Amino acid sequence: MKVCHLFSKRVTVSRPFLFILFAVAIGLGAHSAYAQNMALNTGFNYIWWESNQHEKGTEVSVPLSIEGDYRDVQFRVLTGYLYGYHDARGIDSHRVKDLLDTKLNFSYAFEDVGGFTVLAGLDFNVPTGRSELHEKDTGVLVDPDLVPITSWGEGFNVNPTVVILKSWDEILVGLGGGYLRRGSYDYSNDFEDYDPGDIWRMTGEIRYYPDQYWGIRAFSSYNWYGKDTLHGDDYYQPGDMLEAGLGISFERAPWQFKIDFSSFFRQKEETQAASGDLTEEDKNSYGNEFQVKTSATYDLSDTYALLGVVNFLHIEPNDYQREDSLYRGTRRKIEAGVGLQWKYSEKYQVKALGTYFTLHDHETPDHPDSSRTYRGVTFQAGLITRF
Description:
Structural class: mainly beta
Strand content: over 45%
């Protein structure tokens, strides 16, 4: 029994690294036979946070992606390894580590189709990550505004997309649509045979380039969500979501600058009533969301560049009254950071970026009796290798 236990433990630890080596081998083999402009991206992402109520957590991820061209098809393979830790006020701490799902992305451009350019894409989610989470495991998957990765594994998903582009001198217009077919999987011990609803998405964007330095874009999207089912019964349906935004970019040596303003508006959701049917909620449990994301690069030389980011998030209170158990108050997050980019050669590039953030939450269903203030740090290091 001791030998079997040791062997099992070694397999669990080694599986992500064996998969990564396998993906690298496939990528190198494809490059030597057919592909062009191949790039291998990897890195190390670290996030630590804590609250004024002595909650704390850590998320460490090691992403790996291989991308390139095969004839006229662009492709990308993305996977990674994740370690997560969460301590709920020193009472219940838990750690989880495992491989993430694998993403496969393919795209092809059809030039001059009736005066338009058509971009066709086909993406897959391959369930190589963890599902069937234990009750403690789900506690590690904390708020997406604290950590970027909130899911180890899903089902087998297929996402075809089409984008149509048309340009007139300084103006570029694009319209697109996509359909995400999401496969069923066992989310946890309590949510077996969980089938998330499919998603339809329409997008539009207009770009204007008044001169060689400036660019302005207006963009929007609309998402329709299907019903989630559990054991074959309707369980939940998110409300439709509208996104609208404006972006401005500037690039003139040695500066590069970009800022995006985004707004998100969500409709009422439907939840399972006592009768078993889905019923629309009385009031909207989502407040309107606004984001500002900025990034800047300053070239110190042909080899080194300084990086900077400043991000802001504001979510308004939802439509429930403050004394209601479903009330969710204002949320604000501010994040700022600096970094360095090093172009060792045409084939090797290294980036490092560190940020500090604060997030303030008014009362929510998770902590109805008091607000929360979180603070945290992130560190990202990445390596891009072209071959």
